[in-house]
# Entry
Amino acid sequence: MESEEGAVWWWIACTTTTTLPTPGTPTGETGTPQRPPDIVYVTIDTTRRDHLAPWGDPALTPNVARLAEGALRYDQAQAGASWTKPSMATTLASQDAWEHGVWDWPDAIDPNTPTLFSVLHGAGWRLEAVVGHNALAAYAAPYAASFDVYDTSSWEGIGYPGDLVTSETLVDQALGYLDALEADPGAPFLLWVHLFDPHDTYFDHDDVVDLGTTKADRYAEEVAYTDQQLGRLLDRVLDRPDTLIVLHADHGEELGDHGRYGHAFSLYQELLGVPLLIRGPGVEPGVVTAPVGLIDLAPTMLALVGQTPPDSFRGTSLLPSPAARPLFAETRRFADLRSVRDGDLQLVWNVATASGRLFDLATDPAQKLDASERLPDDRLRMQTLLSEVYPEVSAY
# Structure
Protein backbone atom coordinates (compact mmCIF):
# COMPACT_ATOMS: atom_id res chain seq x y z
CA MET A 1 0.00 0.00 0.00
CA GLU A 2 1.24 3.46 -0.80
CA SER A 3 1.90 5.96 1.95
CA GLU A 4 -0.35 8.87 2.91
CA GLU A 5 1.03 11.44 2.51
CA GLY A 6 -18.80 22.09 -19.49
CA ALA A 7 -18.60 25.07 -18.53
CA VAL A 8 -15.89 27.69 -18.14
CA TRP A 9 -12.87 27.67 -20.41
CA TRP A 10 -9.79 29.79 -20.35
CA TRP A 11 -7.66 30.64 -23.37
CA ILE A 12 -4.16 29.33 -23.01
CA ALA A 13 -1.21 31.22 -24.39
CA CYS A 14 1.95 29.30 -25.17
CA THR A 15 5.45 30.63 -25.58
CA THR A 16 6.30 28.00 -28.17
CA THR A 17 5.35 26.85 -31.62
CA THR A 18 5.55 23.22 -32.62
CA THR A 19 5.33 21.41 -35.95
CA LEU A 20 3.37 18.18 -35.86
CA PRO A 21 3.83 15.22 -38.14
CA THR A 22 0.90 14.54 -40.43
CA PRO A 23 -1.43 11.94 -38.89
CA GLY A 24 -1.33 8.54 -40.49
CA THR A 25 1.65 6.82 -42.01
CA PRO A 26 4.44 9.30 -42.83
CA THR A 27 6.12 9.03 -46.22
CA GLY A 28 9.55 10.06 -47.38
CA GLU A 29 10.47 12.04 -50.49
CA THR A 30 10.28 8.90 -52.62
CA GLY A 31 6.82 8.01 -51.36
CA THR A 32 8.08 5.04 -49.36
CA PRO A 33 6.74 4.61 -45.83
CA GLN A 34 8.80 6.48 -43.26
CA ARG A 35 9.39 4.79 -39.94
CA PRO A 36 7.85 6.81 -37.10
CA PRO A 37 9.95 7.76 -34.08
CA ASP A 38 10.70 5.31 -31.32
CA ILE A 39 9.53 6.37 -27.85
CA VAL A 40 11.40 6.26 -24.56
CA TYR A 41 8.74 6.93 -21.96
CA VAL A 42 10.00 7.64 -18.43
CA THR A 43 7.66 8.00 -15.48
CA ILE A 44 9.00 8.74 -12.01
CA ASP A 45 6.93 7.94 -8.97
CA THR A 46 6.11 10.46 -6.25
CA THR A 47 8.22 13.29 -7.66
CA ARG A 48 7.53 16.94 -6.93
CA ARG A 49 8.08 19.35 -9.78
CA ASP A 50 9.93 21.79 -7.53
CA HIS A 51 12.62 19.18 -6.85
CA LEU A 52 13.61 18.77 -10.51
CA ALA A 53 15.57 21.10 -12.75
CA PRO A 54 14.69 23.37 -14.42
CA TRP A 55 12.00 24.10 -11.80
CA GLY A 56 14.26 23.39 -8.83
CA ASP A 57 17.96 23.32 -7.96
CA PRO A 58 19.84 22.03 -11.06
CA ALA A 59 22.54 20.61 -8.78
CA LEU A 60 19.99 18.13 -7.41
CA THR A 61 18.92 16.75 -10.80
CA PRO A 62 21.54 17.63 -13.44
CA ASN A 63 20.40 14.84 -15.74
CA VAL A 64 16.80 15.99 -15.89
CA ALA A 65 18.29 19.44 -16.55
CA ARG A 66 20.11 17.96 -19.57
CA LEU A 67 16.88 16.54 -20.91
CA ALA A 68 15.06 19.82 -20.34
CA GLU A 69 17.61 21.85 -22.31
CA GLY A 70 16.27 20.55 -25.62
CA ALA A 71 12.72 19.78 -24.54
CA LEU A 72 9.29 21.33 -24.59
CA ARG A 73 8.67 22.08 -20.94
CA TYR A 74 5.31 22.40 -19.23
CA ASP A 75 5.61 24.58 -16.14
CA GLN A 76 2.15 23.83 -14.72
CA ALA A 77 1.35 20.25 -15.69
CA GLN A 78 -1.33 18.70 -13.48
CA ALA A 79 -1.93 15.08 -12.52
CA GLY A 80 -5.47 13.73 -12.36
CA ALA A 81 -5.05 12.29 -8.86
CA SER A 82 -2.68 12.39 -5.91
CA TRP A 83 -1.67 8.73 -6.04
CA THR A 84 -0.48 6.32 -8.68
CA LYS A 85 -3.33 4.08 -9.88
CA PRO A 86 -5.93 6.74 -10.76
CA SER A 87 -3.32 9.22 -11.96
CA MET A 88 -1.73 6.76 -14.39
CA ALA A 89 -5.15 5.54 -15.53
CA THR A 90 -6.12 9.12 -16.37
CA THR A 91 -2.83 9.65 -18.18
CA LEU A 92 -2.79 6.42 -20.19
CA ALA A 93 -6.54 6.12 -20.97
CA SER A 94 -7.04 9.89 -21.38
CA GLN A 95 -10.11 9.85 -19.16
CA ASP A 96 -10.88 11.54 -15.86
CA ALA A 97 -11.31 9.28 -12.87
CA TRP A 98 -15.09 9.60 -12.69
CA GLU A 99 -15.14 7.89 -16.09
CA HIS A 100 -12.41 5.25 -15.82
CA GLY A 101 -13.47 4.33 -12.27
CA VAL A 102 -10.08 3.74 -10.65
CA TRP A 103 -10.78 5.06 -7.16
CA ASP A 104 -9.25 2.68 -4.64
CA TRP A 105 -6.44 0.15 -4.46
CA PRO A 106 -8.38 -2.87 -5.82
CA ASP A 107 -9.69 -0.88 -8.81
CA ALA A 108 -8.33 -1.10 -12.35
CA ILE A 109 -9.54 0.27 -15.65
CA ASP A 110 -11.53 -2.11 -17.81
CA PRO A 111 -9.09 -4.19 -19.90
CA ASN A 112 -11.12 -3.24 -23.00
CA THR A 113 -10.57 0.49 -22.42
CA PRO A 114 -8.11 1.79 -25.03
CA THR A 115 -4.87 3.21 -23.70
CA LEU A 116 -1.76 4.77 -25.18
CA PHE A 117 -0.17 1.33 -25.02
CA SER A 118 -2.99 -0.66 -26.58
CA VAL A 119 -3.28 1.79 -29.49
CA LEU A 120 0.42 1.49 -30.27
CA HIS A 121 0.35 -2.28 -29.82
CA GLY A 122 -2.59 -2.53 -32.22
CA ALA A 123 -0.67 -0.42 -34.75
CA GLY A 124 2.19 -2.95 -34.75
CA TRP A 125 4.60 -1.33 -32.32
CA ARG A 126 6.94 -3.34 -30.14
CA LEU A 127 6.36 -2.48 -26.49
CA GLU A 128 8.69 -3.31 -23.62
CA ALA A 129 8.57 -2.08 -20.03
CA VAL A 130 10.49 -2.18 -16.78
CA VAL A 131 8.13 -1.23 -13.98
CA GLY A 132 9.12 -0.53 -10.39
CA HIS A 133 5.71 -0.18 -8.72
CA ASN A 134 3.31 -2.87 -7.54
CA ALA A 135 0.39 -0.53 -8.37
CA LEU A 136 1.32 -1.06 -12.02
CA ALA A 137 1.99 -4.80 -11.84
CA ALA A 138 0.16 -7.12 -14.22
CA TYR A 139 -2.16 -8.27 -11.43
CA ALA A 140 -3.02 -4.68 -10.47
CA ALA A 141 -3.49 -2.94 -13.83
CA PRO A 142 -4.26 -4.07 -17.40
CA TYR A 143 -1.29 -2.47 -19.13
CA ALA A 144 0.91 -5.57 -19.38
CA ALA A 145 -1.40 -7.15 -21.97
CA SER A 146 -0.21 -4.60 -24.56
CA PHE A 147 3.49 -5.35 -24.01
CA ASP A 148 5.84 -7.86 -25.55
CA VAL A 149 7.94 -7.62 -22.36
CA TYR A 150 6.61 -6.37 -19.02
CA ASP A 151 9.37 -6.76 -16.47
CA THR A 152 8.60 -6.32 -12.76
CA SER A 153 11.51 -8.46 -11.55
CA SER A 154 13.25 -5.54 -9.85
CA TRP A 155 10.86 -6.08 -6.93
CA GLU A 156 8.31 -8.82 -7.64
CA GLY A 157 9.24 -11.95 -5.74
CA ILE A 158 11.72 -9.93 -3.67
CA GLY A 159 9.59 -7.60 -1.58
CA TYR A 160 7.49 -4.45 -1.44
CA PRO A 161 9.06 -1.79 -3.70
CA GLY A 162 9.02 0.77 -0.89
CA ASP A 163 11.42 -1.40 1.10
CA LEU A 164 13.88 -1.69 -1.80
CA VAL A 165 16.22 0.46 -3.87
CA THR A 166 15.46 -0.38 -7.50
CA SER A 167 16.48 2.46 -9.85
CA GLU A 168 19.89 1.01 -10.70
CA THR A 169 18.35 -2.37 -11.51
CA LEU A 170 15.55 -0.80 -13.55
CA VAL A 171 17.96 1.26 -15.64
CA ASP A 172 20.22 -1.77 -16.15
CA GLN A 173 17.20 -3.71 -17.38
CA ALA A 174 16.06 -0.85 -19.62
CA LEU A 175 19.50 -0.60 -21.23
CA GLY A 176 19.50 -4.34 -21.84
CA TYR A 177 16.11 -4.22 -23.54
CA LEU A 178 17.24 -1.22 -25.57
CA ASP A 179 20.23 -3.24 -26.78
CA ALA A 180 17.92 -6.01 -27.95
CA LEU A 181 15.48 -3.62 -29.61
CA GLU A 182 18.25 -1.87 -31.51
CA ALA A 183 19.78 -5.19 -32.57
CA ASP A 184 16.54 -6.14 -34.32
CA PRO A 185 15.42 -3.00 -36.15
CA GLY A 186 12.05 -3.13 -37.77
CA ALA A 187 8.82 -1.94 -36.27
CA PRO A 188 9.08 1.16 -34.07
CA PHE A 189 9.15 0.58 -30.34
CA LEU A 190 8.09 2.12 -27.05
CA LEU A 191 10.27 1.46 -24.01
CA TRP A 192 8.54 2.38 -20.73
CA VAL A 193 10.65 2.87 -17.62
CA HIS A 194 8.80 3.51 -14.36
CA LEU A 195 11.23 4.51 -11.59
CA PHE A 196 10.02 4.20 -8.01
CA ASP A 197 12.66 5.30 -5.50
CA PRO A 198 11.38 8.79 -4.56
CA HIS A 199 8.42 6.98 -3.00
CA ASP A 200 8.77 6.31 0.72
CA THR A 201 10.68 4.76 2.44
CA TYR A 202 13.22 7.59 1.96
CA PHE A 203 16.68 6.01 2.01
CA ASP A 204 20.09 7.57 2.55
CA HIS A 205 22.39 7.13 -0.47
CA ASP A 206 26.14 7.23 0.04
CA ASP A 207 26.83 7.99 -3.61
CA VAL A 208 24.87 11.26 -3.73
CA VAL A 209 25.31 14.46 -1.76
CA ASP A 210 24.32 14.19 1.91
CA LEU A 211 21.51 16.69 2.33
CA GLY A 212 20.65 16.03 5.98
CA THR A 213 18.60 13.72 8.15
CA THR A 214 15.04 15.05 8.03
CA LYS A 215 12.33 13.37 5.99
CA ALA A 216 12.48 16.21 3.48
CA ASP A 217 16.27 15.83 3.23
CA ARG A 218 16.04 12.10 2.66
CA TYR A 219 13.33 12.59 0.05
CA ALA A 220 15.57 15.04 -1.83
CA GLU A 221 18.40 12.48 -1.70
CA GLU A 222 16.08 9.88 -3.22
CA VAL A 223 15.26 12.29 -6.05
CA ALA A 224 18.98 12.99 -6.58
CA TYR A 225 19.77 9.25 -6.61
CA THR A 226 17.00 8.56 -9.12
CA ASP A 227 18.31 11.36 -11.35
CA GLN A 228 21.80 9.84 -11.15
CA GLN A 229 20.53 6.50 -12.38
CA LEU A 230 18.30 8.14 -15.00
CA GLY A 231 21.42 9.82 -16.32
CA ARG A 232 22.76 6.46 -17.52
CA LEU A 233 19.65 5.98 -19.64
CA LEU A 234 19.78 9.54 -20.95
CA ASP A 235 23.44 9.06 -21.91
CA ARG A 236 22.18 6.38 -24.27
CA VAL A 237 19.06 7.99 -25.72
CA LEU A 238 19.45 11.79 -25.64
CA ASP A 239 21.31 11.86 -28.96
CA ARG A 240 19.59 8.80 -30.41
CA PRO A 241 18.11 9.83 -33.78
CA ASP A 242 14.36 9.78 -34.33
CA THR A 243 13.56 9.11 -30.69
CA LEU A 244 10.78 10.79 -28.76
CA ILE A 245 11.60 11.12 -25.06
CA VAL A 246 8.79 11.85 -22.62
CA LEU A 247 9.27 12.29 -18.87
CA HIS A 248 6.73 13.03 -16.17
CA ALA A 249 5.78 12.06 -12.64
CA ASP A 250 2.58 10.34 -11.62
CA HIS A 251 2.07 12.70 -8.66
CA GLY A 252 4.07 14.66 -6.11
CA GLU A 253 4.59 14.38 -2.37
CA GLU A 254 3.66 16.35 0.72
CA LEU A 255 6.71 17.18 2.82
CA GLY A 256 5.02 18.89 5.75
CA ASP A 257 3.68 21.68 3.50
CA HIS A 258 0.22 21.26 5.02
CA GLY A 259 1.12 19.20 8.07
CA ARG A 260 1.47 15.79 6.40
CA TYR A 261 4.04 13.63 4.68
CA GLY A 262 3.07 11.33 1.83
CA HIS A 263 0.28 11.43 -0.72
CA ALA A 264 -3.32 10.42 -1.48
CA PHE A 265 -4.58 12.45 1.51
CA SER A 266 -5.03 15.81 -0.21
CA LEU A 267 -5.12 17.63 -3.55
CA TYR A 268 -2.68 20.47 -2.96
CA GLN A 269 -0.31 21.56 -5.71
CA GLU A 270 2.66 19.81 -4.13
CA LEU A 271 0.78 16.63 -5.07
CA LEU A 272 -0.92 17.55 -8.35
CA GLY A 273 1.84 19.69 -9.86
CA VAL A 274 4.13 17.36 -11.79
CA PRO A 275 7.11 17.73 -14.14
CA LEU A 276 6.43 17.16 -17.83
CA LEU A 277 9.08 17.25 -20.56
CA ILE A 278 8.74 16.19 -24.22
CA ARG A 279 11.76 16.06 -26.52
CA GLY A 280 12.31 14.70 -29.99
CA PRO A 281 11.12 14.82 -33.61
CA GLY A 282 8.30 17.27 -34.24
CA VAL A 283 8.81 19.04 -30.91
CA GLU A 284 10.23 22.55 -30.84
CA PRO A 285 11.95 23.31 -27.51
CA GLY A 286 10.20 25.93 -25.45
CA VAL A 287 8.10 26.62 -22.39
CA VAL A 288 4.35 26.38 -21.83
CA THR A 289 3.39 28.42 -18.79
CA ALA A 290 -0.36 27.74 -18.72
CA PRO A 291 -1.85 24.83 -16.76
CA VAL A 292 -2.18 21.59 -18.72
CA GLY A 293 -3.39 18.15 -17.72
CA LEU A 294 -1.78 14.73 -18.05
CA ILE A 295 -5.14 13.64 -19.51
CA ASP A 296 -3.86 15.24 -22.75
CA LEU A 297 -0.51 13.44 -22.85
CA ALA A 298 -1.56 10.21 -24.58
CA PRO A 299 -3.22 11.98 -27.54
CA THR A 300 -0.15 14.24 -27.76
CA MET A 301 2.22 11.28 -27.98
CA LEU A 302 0.03 9.52 -30.54
CA ALA A 303 -0.09 12.66 -32.71
CA LEU A 304 3.70 12.90 -32.63
CA VAL A 305 4.07 9.38 -34.04
CA GLY A 306 1.30 9.68 -36.62
CA GLN A 307 -1.41 7.68 -34.83
CA THR A 308 -5.05 8.71 -34.38
CA PRO A 309 -6.40 8.60 -30.83
CA PRO A 310 -9.49 6.48 -30.17
CA ASP A 311 -12.91 8.06 -29.64
CA SER A 312 -12.78 7.09 -25.95
CA PHE A 313 -9.93 9.53 -25.30
CA ARG A 314 -11.28 12.71 -23.68
CA GLY A 315 -8.05 14.66 -23.93
CA THR A 316 -6.64 16.40 -26.98
CA SER A 317 -3.11 16.96 -28.18
CA LEU A 318 -1.13 19.64 -26.37
CA LEU A 319 0.51 20.55 -29.68
CA PRO A 320 0.81 22.96 -31.38
CA SER A 321 -0.89 24.69 -28.44
CA PRO A 322 -2.94 23.31 -25.56
CA ALA A 323 -6.71 23.32 -25.76
CA ALA A 324 -8.45 25.31 -23.05
CA ARG A 325 -9.99 23.01 -20.43
CA PRO A 326 -10.75 22.85 -16.73
CA LEU A 327 -8.49 20.37 -14.96
CA PHE A 328 -10.14 17.90 -12.62
CA ALA A 329 -8.50 15.77 -9.96
CA GLU A 330 -9.58 13.59 -7.07
CA THR A 331 -8.62 11.19 -4.33
CA ARG A 332 -10.97 8.68 -2.73
CA ARG A 333 -8.43 6.50 -0.99
CA PHE A 334 -7.41 8.06 2.33
CA ALA A 335 -9.72 11.07 1.91
CA ASP A 336 -12.74 11.86 -0.27
CA LEU A 337 -11.83 15.00 -2.20
CA ARG A 338 -12.60 16.53 -5.60
CA SER A 339 -10.79 19.40 -7.30
CA VAL A 340 -11.08 21.61 -10.34
CA ARG A 341 -8.49 24.09 -11.55
CA ASP A 342 -9.32 26.98 -13.89
CA GLY A 343 -6.33 29.15 -14.66
CA ASP A 344 -4.88 30.35 -11.36
CA LEU A 345 -7.90 29.25 -9.32
CA GLN A 346 -8.33 25.84 -7.72
CA LEU A 347 -11.35 24.66 -5.75
CA VAL A 348 -10.93 21.63 -3.48
CA TRP A 349 -14.16 20.03 -2.23
CA ASN A 350 -14.37 17.74 0.78
CA VAL A 351 -17.21 15.29 0.17
CA ALA A 352 -17.34 14.15 3.81
CA THR A 353 -17.91 17.68 5.15
CA ALA A 354 -19.77 19.04 2.06
CA SER A 355 -17.45 22.04 2.07
CA GLY A 356 -14.81 23.52 -0.17
CA ARG A 357 -11.88 25.91 -0.22
CA LEU A 358 -10.92 28.18 -3.09
CA PHE A 359 -7.23 28.90 -3.67
CA ASP A 360 -5.83 31.76 -5.74
CA LEU A 361 -2.53 30.30 -6.88
CA ALA A 362 -1.36 33.62 -8.34
CA THR A 363 -1.33 35.33 -4.94
CA ASP A 364 -1.13 32.30 -2.67
CA PRO A 365 0.93 29.55 -4.35
CA ALA A 366 1.46 27.78 -1.02
CA GLN A 367 -2.33 27.41 -0.65
CA LYS A 368 -2.63 28.68 2.89
CA LEU A 369 -5.64 31.02 2.46
CA ASP A 370 -9.23 30.32 1.46
CA ALA A 371 -10.14 32.97 -1.14
CA SER A 372 -13.88 32.18 -1.13
CA GLU A 373 -14.94 35.37 0.69
CA ARG A 374 -12.61 37.56 -1.36
CA LEU A 375 -13.75 36.02 -4.67
CA PRO A 376 -17.39 34.97 -4.10
CA ASP A 377 -18.37 35.00 -7.78
CA ASP A 378 -15.39 32.85 -8.69
CA ARG A 379 -16.17 30.53 -5.82
CA LEU A 380 -19.73 29.99 -7.08
CA ARG A 381 -18.53 29.53 -10.66
CA MET A 382 -15.91 26.97 -9.67
CA GLN A 383 -18.30 25.07 -7.41
CA THR A 384 -20.88 24.93 -10.18
CA LEU A 385 -18.24 23.69 -12.60
CA LEU A 386 -17.21 20.92 -10.21
CA SER A 387 -20.82 19.92 -9.52
CA GLU A 388 -21.47 19.41 -13.23
CA VAL A 389 -19.22 16.35 -13.25
CA TYR A 390 -19.49 15.27 -9.61
CA PRO A 391 -23.11 14.99 -8.40
CA GLU A 392 -21.84 14.62 -4.82
CA VAL A 393 -20.66 18.26 -4.98
CA SER A 394 -23.29 20.86 -4.18
CA ALA A 395 -23.83 23.47 -6.88
CA TYR A 396 -24.43 26.22 -4.28
Summary: Residues 337-387 form a domain with the Arylsulfatase, C-terminal domain fold (CATH 3.30.1120.10). The longest strand covers residues 286-293. The chain has nine helices and 15 strands.
